[in-house]
Amino acid sequence: MTTPLWQIDSFAEEPFTGNPAAVALLPHAASDSWMRRVAAEMNLSEAAFVVAEGNRYRLRWFTPTVEVDLCGHATLAAAHALWESGVCKAGLPIEFATRSGPLIATQTDGKIVLNLPATVSTPTHAPATVLKALGVHPISTRHFTQGLMLELATEEEIRSAAPDYLRLAEAEEDDFIITARSRDPRYDFVSRFFAPAHGINEDPVTGWAHCCLGPYWATKLGKNELTGRQLSNRGGTVGVRVLGKDPASDQPDGDRVELAGKAITVLRGELVTPVDPS
Predict the structure, then answer these.
(1) What's the rounded Cα separation, in Å, for the pair 161 and 90?
(2) For residue 264, how far is the Cα from the chain centroid?
(3) 13, 14, 41, 46: which is the annotated catalytic residue?
(4) DSSP 8-state assignment for residue 210
(5) CB 38 within 8 A of CB 92
(6) pLDDT digits (tens, 9 = 90+) for 64-115
(7) Active site residue 41
(8) Nearest to 101 by CA among 117, 88, 114, 113
(9) CATH number of 122-261
């Protein structure tokens, strides 16, 4: 039996932009080692593996080297594949069961909207070794889950940053976001994301990073609905709405966030290697 396989550009305005993800629709649950090998074979920042569980879908994400707890762009791609293939009826919500709890995908105004958990960040100081590896001088540094988010003074500093990935991979933290206010009035903030310890030097567009960026910038800018632009070579746009937050509050986090973006299929085929059962 073959397995349907897609390559989909998420948070993309046109093909070959945004963040590509592989999506495999499995006939049954697969072993961790098999999914890890498929993700390495695809060699994209993430591969999503989907299997039906009653009225919902079990969803897991793998980089070329590790399984991750949450991946926004691969979730967007998985929802797009299910709707585009006709497995799920267009216009109806899709519920995913994941390591980060239940995630809901809906369709609105030509975009896919994901309801995801917000990520709390707290003030901290970046080690000198990290600042040297990133080559930046932040005006604010915050800690989140397994990484650091550094606000820089200008968009130009975000664009010109040239990290030393070998040194960055040796840091205690795994993930690094740099961000600044956007000089382009179409966007509220810009960012870049690096995770060399996970086999991803620079991620093209990082959905789950916006689960942290959204609450942070909502507090700074005093509004719940924002638009972020990730300044990788491919580039991508992420709409963010912070839920459960009062814009007048000085608390940096809400309960949930909604991320909105477009997805474009660039490759559709079959994986002929049999699925190893879990």
Answers:
(1) 41
(2) 16
(3) 46
(4) H
(5) no
(6) 888 999 999 999 999 999 999 999 999 999 999 999 999 999 999 899 999 9
(7) no
(8) 117
(9) 3.10.310.10
Domain borders along the chain are 3-107+263-271, 122-261
Find where tokens 């942070």 sit.
216
Q: How far is CA 43 from CA 7, 9, 65, 73, 277, in A?
A: 11, 14, 9, 15, 22
The answer to whether the beta carbons of residues 257 and 116 sit under 8 Å apart is: yes
Q: Given this chain, do its domains 3-107+263-271 and 122-261 carry the same CATH topology?
A: yes
Residue 195's H or E segment, with its range, is strand 189-195
Which phi and psi (to 5°) does residue 225 adopt? -110, 120
Dihedral sign, CA of 158, 161, 165, 169?
negative
Res 208: pLDDT: 87
The band of 134, judged by pLDDT with boundaries at 50, 70 and 90, is very high
The domain at 3-107+263-271 falls in which architecture? Answer: Roll (3.10)
For 135, 155, 156, 166, 186, the CA distances from 178, given in Å and listed in that order, are 11, 10, 12, 18, 19
pLDDT mean over 207-215: 94
Of 223, 234, 141, nearest to 188 (Cα)? 223
Contact 256, 244 (CB under 8 A): yes
Q: Which residues contact 143 (CB under 8 A, 6 or more apart)?
A: 121, 122, 123, 124, 149
pLDDT of 245 higher than 70: no
Interatomic CA distance for residues 193 and 201, integer angstroms: 8
* Nearest Cα to Cα of residue 125 among 144, 148, 146, 145: 148
